[in-house]
Structure formats: structure tokens, C-alpha cells
Amino acid sequence: MSKIQSRFFPLAFLAAKTTIKALDLTGHAGGTLPGAIAETIDPAFLGDIAKPDQVVFISGTNGKTTTNNLLNDLLADNGYHTVTNRVGGNISSGFASSFARNATFGGKVKSKLAVMEFDELSGPRIFPFFQPDILAVTNLFRDTFSRSATPDFVFDVMNTGIPSGTHLILNADDMISCRLAPQCEHRTYFSVAHLAEDTQEPVGIVSDLTACPLCGGKLRWDYAHLRHLGRATCESCGFTNPKPDYEVISVDRSQHLFTVRENSAPGAPTYTYTLNSYSIVNLYNLLTCIVVAREMGLTPEQIAASLAHGINITESRYNEIDYRGHRLISMASKGENDTATSVTLDILRRQPGDKAIIIMIADAYMAKAKDQTEYIGWYYQTDFEVLQDPSVKQVILYGDTSLDLLVRLRFAGIDPKKTFVASTPEETADLVDLNKVQHVFYAHGLYNGGIADVSRQKILDRLKNREALHE
After folding, report:
1. First-to-last CA distance in the chain?
2. Where does the Lipid II isoglutaminyl synthase (glutamine-hydrolyzing) subunit MurT C-terminal domain start and stop, copy by copy (predicted)?
3. 167 & 112 share domain
4. Which end of the chain, N or C, is surrounded by fewer C-beta atoms within 10 Å?
5. At what angle do helices 338-350 and 280-296 cross, to 10 degrees?
6. 65 with 213, same domain?
């Protein structure tokens, strides 16, 4: 065990180990409970506990969970054994739980490599106790307002706490997060070059970057991929995106391939990788994963082989069933996050064919809490206007805030004749007019997947019954 700084550490460690054992015996994941107990007994537990030799953090507003899970899967496929917080314990108590599980009573660690999701606001509780070797940041957007306020607030919290010796891996297309921690000299940047579907400037109801982040001057945009992710230059001070070390230079959607050029390597070689489900979000997440893996020492050939045989975007975020030409797609997005939800809605409405879109974004857990109320202001920062698309024949709402969302759809100009409110998951399936639509798509919160599955199964049953009647 590392040098003990607190006389309470032995008791805290024993309590954490006992809690882990009890949770395992009862079949509970317990992502943060063991660590929370340990930190209550010993507030310096994270400094006292034995830690892996190398620690890699994945952070950012959108994509950190997907990227973290992808990276752990990729490393496991190549023979690495990691300690991680896959279940989502991305705050200090989650790290404490993971490190306690990884430590032995003899002071050793079971795995010498940690690859972990890191909450953007957790730095003040974690960095005083240990320094990550690598910190990758996917992006910074506005997030849950009641917790994260604005991107500027999150930036300031992260910016002052990152240890100077940490290797930063940053998104060159994000002029907010690419400026993080100038005290860190070891910096690696990644980028996606201009794509055919890019816009001339950021589009959407809101943009988190309306002026130069350095001087407040006007930004001249070359292109935008997604909201403020893109390339621009300040007309006043000349601030622009940093040059990327890794750059996606082409995407072949039909072949599910994309090519990355390593600009800083001798000869700027290019490598091609598999992306099983294209979206700009998935492309960024997978690119981040690849860049971190390359900086950790994996070869392009190792990475490409793993991606080619199935290590890719998790089905928990995107799942598709095709029943005799009827596509039933379920897409999850981060709750109370307007960018993630806007992207999901846009991806679904762009799918070919007439469709019904069932929206299940109300927080099912918060709805049951007597002392909490879900903040619905984020509905007015989300691009529901895309549902005006004529191929969207029905929009069906479910959840405790459905009436609030219905009002938002009215403001978005969605035809009242094609909007419906369901009182149960089963009713969402009943409301779908299979004579008008060929496909049924679900946009739901991360923790509403089970509710969406109930509805989707009933749609499948209806399709099978219709088929039986026509035989």
C-alpha cells in the first residue's frame, strides 16, 4: 500500500472492502457506495490507497462514457487488464471504490493500468491526491444547468486544477476545451477535417461559442461540424484552432470506414479504421478513443484489427431492429443535455422513409423523487424544430413532463395533428399509425432504455400480428 497519510486509512480501507464484498454477494454493482463510506472515514482516502502505475482519464460534456467504454474494450481486446469505472462512478467516491476493489490487503494492485471516466467538476476533489498521466477531453458544451451552469463555469473549474505534468489530449475543433490548462506542456490535438454535410457556421437554437473566447471579437467560420465544433478564426486577435496531430481526412459511409492522418509522425502516414454506425458524434468518440490508444502505445494495426472484428459503439446508446423492412431504432442521449438530444433527433429525422418518433426524455427517476423537480428549461435549448421534417408523420411523447414538452413542440412549429401524448409505454406503441409510417424511432434518456424496449416490443408484436392476418 502507498504511504499512509491518515491514521483512519486502515479502517476506511477495511470498510470499503467489506462493502464491496457485501454488494458482490447481493448482486449489486455499488459504483460509489464503498468509496463514499471510505471517504467519510478518511477524507484523504484517494491519496492513501494504492493506485495503478498509469492512470488515464476520459472527460468532456458529451461522449466520455462511450469513449471510456470503447477504450477499455479496445485495450482488453489487445491483452491489457484495466481497472475502470464503467458503471458510471466518475466522481471521487467512484474512483475510491474502483481503487479499493483493485487493491489488495498486502498493499499491491491487481491491475497496473486505470482507464476511467472523469467528471469535469471532480478535479478539486481528485487532483490534490493524485495526477492522471493522460487526460482526454472530448468537448465542452452546456450541460445540466442545475449542476453545471455554463460551459465557462465548467472550463474554469477544470482549467485551474489540472496538474501541469498531465498529458492532455484535446479536441482541436472545440475552441473552448482546446484552451484548457496552458500549464500542461504535453498536448496532443485531434480534429475532423471539412465534411460534405458541414454548415458554414454553427446552427441550432443555441451556440456555446458566439464570440472569440480570448478577446470577444467576431469569429469568421470556415465550417462547423456540430454546433460550435469546427474551424474559425477571430477577426480581431487572430485566435484560431490549434493544428491537429491526428486528423480525420475522409469518411466512406457506404463502406463504414474513415481515414486518420497522423500529422506529427514522420511522413504524415494515414490509417483506415472501421466505424460501424456513422454520425459525427460517433466519429468524434471513436477518434478520441483511437488517439488515446495510439498515445498509450497501441499500433494502428492493433486498433484497426479490433475495430474490424466488432469493438465499436456500444448498443446501449444505439440499437436497431429491422423487421421485414420496418426499422425500429432506439437512440439514447444524455439527460438534460440539449446538444446530445438535438443530435439524436436530427439523426433520426434524417433516416430515409416515413417515420414515427417516440420521445421519452423525461427523467423517470426524478419524477418519483418528492424533493426534486426536473428543470425543463433545456427543452428550449434543444432543436425540436427538426421534427418539422415532412417524413416525420407522428411525434409521440411519454413521461411526466410530456405536457411541458408538448408546449415546446407548439413553439417549434410542429403540426398539432401529428403530435400525441401517451400515458403508458404501451400506449406509445398503440398510438403509432402503421398505415402511415414504415419505421418507428425512439429518442430516450440514458436511463429510459427499458421503457423504450417495452414499447418497441409491442410494435414488433403489432407488425407480426398484421403479417399473420394477411397470410
Report:
1. 70
2. 337-431
3. yes
4. C
5. 120
6. yes
Which residues span the domain enclosing 234? 9-308
215 is in an annotated binding site: yes
- Count of the separate structural domains present in the chain: 2
- Catalytic residue at 354? no
Between CA 406 and CA 396 the distance in angstroms is 10
Same domain for 87 and 218, yes or no, is yes
Distance CA(83)–CA(98), nearest Å, equals 7
Among residues 24, 143, 338, 371, the one annotated as catalytic is: 371
Flag whether 289 is marked binding. Answer: no
Q: Are residues 294 and 368 in the same domain?
A: no
Which helix (H) or strand (E) segment holds residue 187: the answer is: strand 187-192
Please say whether the beta carbons of 383 and 206 come within 8 A.
no
33 and 165, same domain (yes or no):
yes
Q: Which of 363, 404, 414 is nearest to 384 (CA)?
A: 414
192 and 267 both lie in a single domain:
yes
Report if residue 178 sits inside a domain.
yes
In a domain, 4, yes or no: no
For 302-330, write each residue's pLDDT tens digit.
999 999 998 877 655 778 999 999 999 99
Q: What is the DSSP string of 285-341?
A: HHHHHHHHHHHHT--HHHHHHHHHTT--S-TTTEEEEEETTEEEEEEEE-TT-HHHH
- Taking only Cα atoms into account, the Rg of the chain, rounded to an integer number of angstroms, comes to 23
Q: Which residues contact 450 (CB under 8 A, 6 or more apart)?
A: none
CATH of the domain at 107: 3.40.1190.10
Domain edge (last residue) among 243, 277, 308? 308
pLDDT digits (tens, 9 = 90+) for 211-230: 999 999 999 999 999 999 99
Residue 3 lies in a domain: no
Q: Are residues 234 and 326 in the same domain?
A: no
Residue pair 445/332 in contact (Cβ under 8 Å)? The answer is yes
Angle at 145 between CA 401 and CA 407, to 5 degrees: 30
Alpha-carbon distance of 392 to 269, in angstroms, equals 43
What are the C-alpha distances in Å from 464 to residues 261, 326, 424, 452, 470?
48, 11, 21, 18, 10
pTM: 0.88
Q: Which three cell numbers stand for residue 422?
A: 401517451
Write the pLDDT tens digit of every residue in 438-467. 999 999 998 888 999 999 999 999 999 998
Is 1 within the bounds of a domain? Answer: no
